[in-house]
Automatic annotation (TrEMBL):
Organism phylogeny: Bacteria, Pseudomonadati, Pseudomonadota, Gammaproteobacteria, Cellvibrionales
Keywords, ordered alphabetically: DNA-binding, Transcription, Transcription regulation
InterPro entries assigned: Class_I_gatase-like, DJ-1/PfpI, Homeodomain-like_sf, HTH_AraC, HTH_AraC-typ_CS, INH-QAR
Pfam families according to UniProt: DJ-1_PfpI, HTH_18
Span of domain HTH araC/xylS-type: 227-325
GO terms for MF: DNA-binding transcription factor activity; sequence-specific DNA binding
UniProt protein name: GlxA family transcriptional regulator
Domain of life per record: Bacteria
Amino acid sequence: MSNSTETPVNETDVAMHVGFLMLPEYTLSTFSNAVGILRMANRLSGRELYTWTLRSLDGEPVTSSAGLEINLDGSLKDADGINILLVCGGYSVKKYCDKPLIESLRLISKRKIPMGGICTGSYALAAAGLLDGYRCTIHWENIASFREEFPKLNIASSLFVIDRDRYTCSGGISSIDLMLNLIASIHGHQLVQQISEQFTCDRVRTEKDAQRAPLKYLIGASQPRLVDAVTLMESNIEEPLTLDEVADYVGISRRQLERLFNRYLHCAPSRYYLELRLSRARLLLLQTSIPVIDVAISCGFSTAPHFSKCYSDLYSKPPSSERRALR
């Protein structure tokens, strides 16, 4: 987990109350995954660690994107005693971010209640100005437009982001990862390991894990040379190309290539290429029994020490520890 995590610690026997704000057309699967993790935490611990209530802005029923309705516990203004508020959005979140919603979220924020967004719930928080100064994420389909509409936000392409008292995730099963990491910070990794086994998760993913998304959705479709450059990098992992070669293949200068990466991917092309190779190496370490030195070579590292140093710098543990943790 991130060092910036400041999750509300609950050291008493009082259950932590999670409030879910259901926006119209919310993504049912992302919401149900989050609740399922809380329910399993209670079951495996043998006590009520978490309670939850479901709210809409006015207390009236809302329909999910799957066309289903579930019983609600009332309106957002009546949500007393909640310790965390999670906003549940869906594909059409933007049209529901009206003035009453924004004002209500700001009032909740003034009460110093930690807040988060699952799936596109991040958009509602951003529209209310509640993600200013925080790292955050959103579903990969929305990242490009999210960056255009909120250019000052620090938007990551991670599965989820925990930054102090703001929790955001990208949708789908990433709400599982978000909730597992929140629970780990409060009740420890042993409980989380038991929960992940019940959900048949092969591992608990962290903020270092990126969404697997087509690049055109992360940067928009207006930069074909950048897409071509990344495609070249992805196709040349074992024998990395030089940046001059990449630039030459896509028909631009190296300086232009660096400008494109810095503007749209917020890092130097050399850094992006390195993290791409290390990400591939991590998958091999976690999913295969290939010796570490062979993983290093297959991902373009000529020596084990260099591979180990680069890997440790990015993932805060050497590759040998990653493999042992998996076992």
